[in-house]
Amino acid sequence: MPELPEVEALAAFLREKAVGKTVARVDVAAISVLKTFDPPLTALGGLTVTSVSRHGKFVDLDCDGVHLVIHLARAGWLRWSDALSPKPPKPGSGPLALRVHLDDESGFDLTEAGTRKRLAVYVVRDPADVPGIARLGVDPLSDEFTIDRLQQILTKAGRAQIKGVLRDQAVIAGIGNAYSDEVLHAAKLSPFQPSSALDADGVANLHAVIIDELTTALKRAEGLAAKDLKDSKRTNMRVHGRTGETCPVCGDVVREVSFADSSLQYCATCQTGGKILADRRMSKLLK
């Protein structure tokens, strides 16, 4: 799933490629992708893309005051083309969900792999009309994300496991499964660490690590084409997605805890004092 660094890089890519161009038309290949009906999708036709921004993991294209908001979910992606085919796509044809044509024949496809269709597109007058945006917590790269703010978040979370708190979009916007694994590894914290158990030094260290991990990933993604962002993210993970490989910090093996529909990766030497965490495969925690 694209997270804050990749979504911000996608927004920057679209600022360069799409801002100033006019939407010629939008084709829907999978009706399930569209989550709103007023304004209609056809309202975008003839409008100019005036800006592109990010809200958590959402990309927001402002088209003369009508917003095309995209959430790529777990398996969605954006594929840019400088010369889109003018032929309308066939509904239900492959991974294509939606196609946006711009007035110079460029544009982009929204695609989604797999059978679980969670890619979501909204057409709204105000981004806050999107429920997922309305409930977003603090952006970790904003000025509002201070050490005191993080302390308040962790104190309020109480005994809740810190991995789940970092992933909760209503608490901190933009961090998902991958970067929470990376943050906790860099901060030398167990994913099952109770949130309120961190002392003042621990909170300050976690705050610094969150900002460093995200800004470093964002710098790596700057200037990359949309098609290259996934590989850049995958290549630079230290523990996430690296089960069975060697931890680059200590040389121990990277281990995994599996859940009903997700998993986390960690290094026992770096993060849990050598303790092997139980694989709670059927647990619904941290979803």
Outline the fold blueprint.
Layout: H1 4-18, E1 23-28, E2 49-55, E3 58-63, E4 66-71, E5 76-81, E6 96-102, E7 107-112, E8 120-124, H2 131-134, H3 147-157, H4 162-167, H5 177-187, H6 200-221, H7 229-235, E9 254-258, E10 263-267, H8 268-271
Antiparallel strand pairs: 1-6, 2-3, 3-4, 4-8, 5-7, 6-7, 9-10
Helix pairs in contact: 1-6, 3-6, 5-6
GO molecular function, one term: damaged DNA binding
Cofactor: Zn(2+)
EC number: 3.2.2.23, 4.2.99.18
What do you see in this structure?
With 287 residues, the chain is α+β, with helices and mostly antiparallel strands. The protein folds into two domains: 4-134, N-terminal domain of MutM-like DNA repair proteins; 147-271, Helicase, Ruva Protein, domain 3 (Orthogonal Bundle). Helices cover 28% and strands 21% of the residues. It contains eight helices and ten strands. It has helices spanning 4-18, 131-134, 147-157, 162-167, 177-187, 200-221, 229-235, 268-271; strands spanning 23-28, 49-55, 58-63, 66-71, 76-81, 96-102, 107-112, 120-124, 254-258, 263-267. The strands form three sheets. The chain has a four-stranded antiparallel sheet with strand order 1-6-7-5, with no helix packed on it. α1 (4-18) packs parallel to α6. The two termini are 14 Å apart. Residues 282-287 have low confidence and may be disordered.
